[in-house]
Structure formats: C-alpha cells, structure tokens
Records
---
Amino acid sequence: MTDDLIAHLSADLKPVRPMALQRRLILAAIVGMAIAIVGSWFILHLMLGRPMGETFGGAMFWVKAGYTLAFSLVGLAALPVLARPDGRVLWPLLAAAALLLVALSLGTMNWMRADWATLELMGNTAMVCPWLITLTGAPVLAVLLAALRTMAPRSPAMAGFAAGLMAGGLGAAVYSFYCGETSMMFMAVWYSLGISIIGALGAVLGRLLLRW
C-alpha cells in the first residue's frame, strides 16, 4: 500500500531545472530592484527634488556602494540555503555584524579627527536617511518574500532576515544615488540603521508569512 501511494504521488513529477531556486530568487531581486529604482526616482527626485548622482564618482560614493552591496550579497548567498526545508546557517548574522563593526570602526576614527564632529555624524539628512532607505528597499523585500512563499524555509524568520539584508542593501545602494552625505560615520550609523530596519522587518514578516 505504501509503495503504491509513493508511486502514485511520484508518477507526474517533472525534473526541476538546475539552480531553479536561485534563478527564482535572483529574478525576484531584479524585479524588486526595478520597482525600487523607478519608485525612488519618482519619490526622491520628482517629489522631494533631490538631484540624482550628486556625489557620483567620488570616493565616498564608491565606499557607500561597496558597503551596501556587501549586505545584499550576504543575503543573496544565504537565501538559497535558508529557503530549503533542511537549510540552517547562522553566518549571515556574523557577516552582517562584521560589516557593521568595520564600518563603525573606520567611521569612528574619521569622526575623532574631524573638526566638525556633529556634522560628520548627523550630516543634513540623518533623521530621514534610514526611513528613505527602508522605503526604497521595501519593494525588493516584498517581491523576495513573495518568491519565498513558494518555497519551504526551515526557519521562516531567518529566511526573512536574509531577504531583508538583501533588500536593505539594494535599497540603500539605490538611495545612495540621491544622497549627498560624504561622511564615513554618517554611512556607518544611518545607512546601517536603514538596512537593519529592513532586516528586522523581513524577519518579522518572514515569521508570519513563510510558515508552512
């Protein structure tokens, strides 16, 4: 009887394409990124009047790009593992913490040498920066969570957190095109806070939406 049931359930199975899970997640990230780019242009450029590419090409622009994209790569590397029923990995937490520690250390050294320490930390946009990063990364998180709902993560919260890291990093990278701040300390504190908000939001929503 058991053999018959197994044979019946497996009769119509079709082979899965290699890297199918990774392809789905990357496609979701691309779709979310496209929405984030269009949305940020509409909100930040048209509505708030922020110029695009104000600091493009400068050293700090590339530092911000590298820092934010590093978070997204951590999430991207962890998601295919965490999206599986047997997936268990804690290194995304350690990698994110290490990135933050390096940024804060470099930022603190620059901050201590600065003539205008308050400006180094707060800049002109500290109170809105994390929330605008959250807003920019939200579409990426939404599409990634929708893709993860077709999978079976062992830990919905960890899978959601990894999706949040990826979304937060990509959202912050998009936001950096509209950000005129050039302080390492500003990036270490406020960009990291924005990415952390998206990561925490992903963990909470993952726990609620990805259970199976």
---
Amino acid sequence: NMADAAGTVNVNISAVAKVEKYGSTTYVGALADAFTEGNSGATVTLLSEVDLGSNYIGIRGSSTFTLDLNGQTVKAADYGAFNILGGSLTIQDSGTGGKIESSNITIKVNSGTLSIKSGTVSGYWGVEISGGTVAISGDAVISGGDTGLRVTDAGKATLFGGTFSGTAAIMANNYGSVTLKNLLAEGYAYHRNNLPVTKAEGWVDSNTWGEVSLDTKATLTGTVTVKKCNHTGEGVCEYTHATSTTTHQQTCLACGKKWDEENCSYTNGECACGSTLAVTLPDNLDLTYTGTAQTPEVTVMVDGTAALAVNTDYSVAYDNNINAGNTAKVTVTGTAFTGTFTLPFTIKPATPTIAWESTTQELAYTGNEAMITAPKATGVNGTQLDITHDTGPCQFSYATQGSSEFTNGLPINAGTYTIKAR
C-alpha cells in the first residue's frame, strides 16, 4: 500500500551570505537580498563565491553595511559590483584572498561613504569616486587594468594605507577638486620600493605632459603603496631659506610635514639649505707686538649680503694674541646659527729703540769677534732689552771705515770700523 510508505530525502539549501544584526543571524541565497533597507546596520559575511552577472548592488539613503569577504570573491560584469549612492559601506576580509572584481568600474562612489580596510578590489577601474568620501587603509589592494583609484568631480578620499596599481595606480582627475597630496592622511606618503614618492605625472602646462609635484591634479603610475612617511631618501625633504637670515624650515615633499623653523648649521661655510656664511679679517691687517692682547675685528656675512652682529648673532674669542708670531687666532661661535669658524692672524715683532752710549769705542785685538759694548735697546712700553755683543734681539754688521758695504757680524781683524745695530 503505497499510501502507507515512509521515506526520507536530503535537501541542501545553499546560502551565499549570512546577515548578522543586533545578535540575530539570517541567511540569503542572493547577495543583493542582504543589502536591503531593513538590514541596515548589519554585517554581511560571504559564504561562497558570488557572480552578480550584469547586475550591481546599490547602497542608498542612510543605510549602513559592513561586507566581510571572508576569503570569497564577488564577480560582476558590465556595470561593476557596487554603486554607492548614499549611506555607508565598509569592506573587509577576515579570510585570505577575498576580492571584488569586474570588467568595468568595480566600485563607483557617487555619494555617501566607503571604507576599504582589507581585501582586493580590481577591474578596468578599481574604484571611482565622483562624490562622497572614501577611506582606504590597512593592506587593501586596489587595482585596475587602466586605473586603480580614480578621484574626480566632487569626490574625496583619505588614504591611510593600501596598495594601488594600474596604468594609472592613482589618478586625481583634472575635473576633480583634490590633488594627490590632498588624498593622503596626515603623516602618510606614497611609496615605491619602500621609498617615499615626491613626484607624479601630469600637465606641466597646457601643452606639456611631464613630471609634476604631488600638490597638483596628477597621476601616479605603476604600483604604489601608502604607508607612514619616514621622510628619508634623496630629494624627499627640502629647505626653505629666506636670504640674509640664519634660519630655515624643512618640508617633506612626500607627506607635506613641516618642521619648526630652526637655525642654519654651517659646515665649511655652507648650510644644507644653501645659505652661506663667511668670516673674514680686514684685508690690510698689519699688527705689531705691543705687549698687550690684540683683538682685530672680524666681519661675519650671511649669504654675502647681510652683516651679523657680535654678541647678538655670534661670540668672539681670541687666543695666543699677545706675543709676536703666527699662532694668534680668533674663533667665531654662532649663537643665531650653529657653527664655529677659526681664523689665524700674525703679530709682527716690534722694532726696539737703539741708543749707543758712546760714538767711539777702543778695543784690543784678540783674534775673536770684537766684544763691543752693546747699545741700549728699549722695547715697547719702555721695557729695557738685554743686549750684549753676542746675545739679545739685535743683529750687528760692520763696514771698514770709509766703505758703505756692511758685513753681518762683528769685525775680528785690527782696524777702524763702523758698527751698525738693528
């Protein structure tokens, strides 16, 4: 009797995603069913791969959703996968390899907000922002066969991380309201090969396409990663220096950080900012021993145009500046700048006043140099100098009486001589 027969059958109801909201979990067989107004505030977690075909999912009004890719893939064609027309969508990947891909603009943001924390978004254009705001952070990957991230019209974005690639990895479109620098979160920079990027490609003028700064509406090509800026690398930072001053300010061209104004630091007369400092003594300096310290005035010029003031911009110290010789020096140490400069100068010996007690001396022949009675020598400040025929600061020369030719030293042979002391 077939009417009394009993049996069982296995039924498999598949779900592509689960929807969690306020502690309640439901399941959907079509991903679009998860993004309804009634599910606003929910976290939608993919359970399997989803192919949207030529359809797309729209986020509108004030609805708020979090999409967890969970290592799965969302595919779309023609119109892309998501169109943000209002509300808020956060994309993350709690699994490995989660991605959203299409052959068109994979995610288009017209209004509202989009946050991509992880996962991959790829397409002809990965993400296009023409309105609303977008935040990209963490290890999110945005790639495009043509453009990874395109910002145009009134669109805005803040980049806290992410890797971007494409013929144009990131494009701040000429019709947009932001520059490439505007897209970066404070303290972040674009990087290639772990080095901060300071230049992009764009219109140099109305006829020339070439290298431009990040402060323009321009394009970064290839692959770039956004991460915290370390301000290192050749040409990454530059100095701004006002001519005739001893201060400058450093700016990072990659992230826009500006340091506080600081004093110039001079090495061999040059600062990294391009400022120059010259310390000089008078060209006609001619010093003679006086028995007291000699302090010739120095001139300190910055950038060849402005003289600095002693005791205001710098201090001066002298050393070995009393005695005759070439060991005297003056040292200038900056107070309005960093740096020390040392200049040597020479003090010439003073010429003593020489006076003979008698104009005639009678000596006996000895076969040696004549042991004359030396003249008295008076140095500076009335100091008496000890002189004998063979010691002291004087040099003697002699000439045979009637001759004008003098020979250094003192005479030995008998005769009448004229002795000269100097």
